[in-house]
Design goal:
The chain is α/β, with parallel strands linked by helices. It is built from 27 helices and 16 strands. Among the domains are: 88 residues, Gyrase A, domain 2 (2-Layer Sandwich), CATH 3.30.1360.70; 94 residues, no CATH class; 88 residues, no CATH class; 123 residues, Isoleucyl-tRNA Synthetase, Domain 1 (Orthogonal Bundle). Strand 2 and strand 3 form a beta hairpin. The structure holds one RNA strand of 77 nucleotides.
RNA sequence: GCGCCCGUAGCUCAGUUGGAUAGAGCGUCGGACUUCGAAUCCGCAGGCCGGGGGUUCAAAUCCCUCCGGGCGCGCCA
């Protein structure tokens, strides 16, 4: 809605500049003034006109203010500072329209029509050979929040979680079971308890096993080849491991409200010969070549230009795509997968249902052979793909893009976007707490890497359990309610705290994980936001309990003149109202910049404003009925918008806190 | 060596396409619960935005350079 108001003003300014100065303007930029006294919108347009008009910006601004004439919804304008044009809305009219839109529900908030085509977001992508840890959670929560943002803006989104079930990491655990623990498939199947935790420990032992005897490392290559060939006992064991671990990952993510639609498996890319097809194309185009000599002799490699070629110091590095033992690296398989995602491969998977969420939503998994039963939805073939992968893989993503370009898919390569983010490391204190380093080693400024290979990290389920336990204590300290209800609320709080913690940092910022911060429920945290909405909801619950039904017809009773009277007299409340209008702008910005932390920062700022409002104005005991109506409308607007913000972040609103 | 990222208050971090007096949280200290629930609110203190140069009417933001830190450059992913 704010956008249409802005548009109206922009049009008026453009035609005025055309008329008065005979200058064509394509667009006018607007900003939110730093303080509410400066108005509701501000434009530096006079600064841009200063040069062509050879006139001081301040004078141009005054000219615009004096001569522009009336614009619907604009109460007044003024020239300010060195040449800003500050614009003041008709507060009543604005609030009235805003409130009526919001009351229509989510649809009232959505501003954009969907553009044609489908968007695939690929996230999580944990190697299915061990339990998920805190680093994986950051990926999944950022990815899931981004998906919610895209859907809010009206885009058609398909969520994929790639299962790398034929890679070295799975092979390592297979080797661990077969040769280190000497277990048969049946024995592995019989392992009870948390299988992902069991594999976490086993995987941590494998490096030592390889280092022990030279022959041990050959077992990895042998296992890897068996996995690619398929249809053997080794593959059966690997399938059991990766499927069981994938189930564990999906269960962990479901605890946080993160869901998927398709699990594309790497083994199917191989067995359906997606890779062979892509390999053929790459060879035909000369995108990859066979290395006769040098360190990569016997491998198929892609040449990557490096340095400034024009300057003549063009050095080339080689990226191995097919190993000398004939197996394919991750990059090779990813090129084939990207081609499929963008609908460029001309081949498709087979599918079967993998599991069903409590909501009824279904997750599908790819297959290499036809499967009778339900017809799957149409997967793949997207116009645009976001790959949520941490920044350390930027080089590999570049190689994959290079591969697509070499095949002639230049525009499509640009539409396959690396959604890059920094990793989570352990703070020094945290690493010491977990016994990964001694107090003496601890450098308070440094961090310790999370490493699945070393078995170092905070496991996702452990962290969620810890949050849950703390939340339960807090809930029980405040309310005397039955156990299941307390647990449900504690769960909502735990999830809110964790998701907010993982979203509030900009994606470029490395998170030094610290239990004290992650487990905090005060200040800039998820529970703070939830508490804010709970407070607002309580007002309406109390009202209802007292038999007051006026809230049911708030919009009918709340007229623009009534709103205007109060809003003109209360700049702090107007500031709160005006801020809620920026919700859609914020969502658009978050998608444009691929920065989900904007949602977090916006929601927090809004909650702060509301808590201040809540503190200053007592609503239920307000004696003036029309003022009470006004305050109720403000609280109602706020809780609607803030609830929408929390939904974007995957946070639920507890009944009480 | 080459490439990418970062450096803002004691600590952890925000800061829209360059815009008006650089903001939060935590921590410290001091206040506010007979009130719609204090998981809250208010106040105090705390900054050559790593250094230097440049572009601009305007730089924390863009360019150059130096210093300090992280990551990548595997027949792992």
């Amino acid at each position: 809605m704010l956008r249409s108001w802005r548009k109206r003003l922009e049009q008026a300014l453009i035609s005025f500049v055309q008329q008065a100065y005979s200058l064509p303007l394509e667009r006018v930029d607007f900003a939110v003034p730093p303080r509410i006294e400066f108005g509701d919108l501000s434009t530096p347009v006079a600064f841009d006109l200063a040069k062509p008009l050879r006139k001081a910006p301040r004078l141009i601004a005054e000219d615009i203010v004096n001569k522009l004439g009336p614009v619907e919804g604009i109460r007044r304008m003024e020239a300010a500072g060195g040449g800003y044009v500050n614009v003041f809305f008709d507060r009543g009219l604005f609030a009235y329209e805003l409130y009526n839109n919001a009351r229509r529900g989510a649809a009232g908030l959505v501003a954009d029509a969907p553009w044609s085509g489908k968007t695939i977001v690929e996230h999580t992508n944990i190697n299915p050979n061990k339990a998920a840890h805190i680093g994986h959670l950051r990926n999944a929560v950022i990815g899931d929040t981004f998906v919610r943002l895209l859907r809010y803006l009206g885009e058609r989104v398909e969520v994929q979680n790639y299962i790398d079930n034929t890679g070295v990491q799975v092979a390592d655990v297979v080797v661990g079971f077969l040769y280190l623990e000497k277990k048969s498939l049946a024995e592995v199947q019989a392992i009870s308890g948390k299988f992902d935790y069991y594999c976490w420990d086993l995987y941590a032992k494998i490096a030592e096993f390889y280092a022990g005897e030279a022959a041990n490392l050959a077992l990895r290559s042998r296992t890897l080849r068996a996995l690619e060939a398929g249809d053997n006992e080794t593959t059966e064991l690997a399938d059991h491991i990766s499927t069981r671990i994938t189930q564990a990952h999906l269960a962990t993510m479901a605890r946080l409200g993160v869901t998927y639609e398709l699990l594309p498996r790497e083994s199917d890319i191989l067995h359906l010969r997606f890779w062979e097809h892509a390999f053929k194309l790459l060879k035909e185009r000369g995108a990859i070549i066979y290395a006769q000599e040098g360190p990569s002799a016997g491998c198929w490699v892609m040449r990557m230009p490096e340095g400034d070629e024009a300057a003549g110091d063009a050095e080339e590095t080689e990226k191995i795509i097919v190993r000398s033992d004939g197996t394919v690296t991750y990059v090779g398989k990813d090129i084939a997968y990207q081609l499929w995602k963008l609908g460029l491969l001309g081949m498709d998977f087979y599918y079967r249902p993998f599991m069903r969420y409590p909501s009824g939503q279904r997750v599908w998994v790819t297959l290499a052979t036809p499967c009778p039963g339900e017809t799957p939805p149409s997967f793949g073939g997207a116009q645009r793909v976001y790959n949520v992968i941490d920044t350390r893989q930027a080089y590999l993503q570049k190689v994959v893009g290079q591969g697509l370009r070499a095949l002639g898919f230049v525009g499509q390569a640009d539409n396959s976007i690396h959604f890059s983010y920094e990793r989570v490391a352990l703070s020094s204190a945290c690493a010491a707490e977990l016994g990964y380093q001694t107090e003496a080693d601890a450098n308070p400024r440094a961090t310790v890497d999370v490493s699945g290979r070393k078995g170092q990290g905070v496991k996702a389920d452990d962290l969620i359990d810890k949050l849950l336990e703390k939340a339960l204590t807090e809930v029980q300290a405040r309310h005397d309610i039955e156990a299941t209800e307390a647990r449900r609320i504690a769960n909502q709080i735990a999830v809110g705290a964790l998701r907010y913690f993982l979203i509030k940092y900009a994606r470029n910022s490395l998170i030094a994980f610290d239990f004290k911060e992650a487990l905090s429920f005060e200040g800039e945290t998820g529970p703070y936001l939830q508490y804010t909405v709970v407070r607002a909801n309580n007002i309406f619950r109390k009202l209802y309990e007292a038999g007051d039904r006026s809230a049911d017809q708030l919009t009918a009773l709340t007229t623009a003149p009534l709103l205007n009277g109060f809003l003109e007299a209360a700049p702090d409340i107007w500031e709160l109202v005006a801020m809620t209008a920026r919700f859609s702008d914020m969502a658009r910005l978050a998608v444009q910049t691929m920065e989900v932390s904007h949602v977090a920062k916006f929601a927090f700022a809004l909650a702060q404003k509301f808590n201040l409002f809540y503190h200053r104005h007592r609503i239920l005991s307000e004696p003036d009925p029309s003022r009470k109506l006004f305050l109720l409308a403000v609280a109602d607007l706020l809780r609607t918008i803030l609830t929408g913000g929390l939904e974007l972040m995957g946070m639920e609103i507890p009944e009480r806190m």
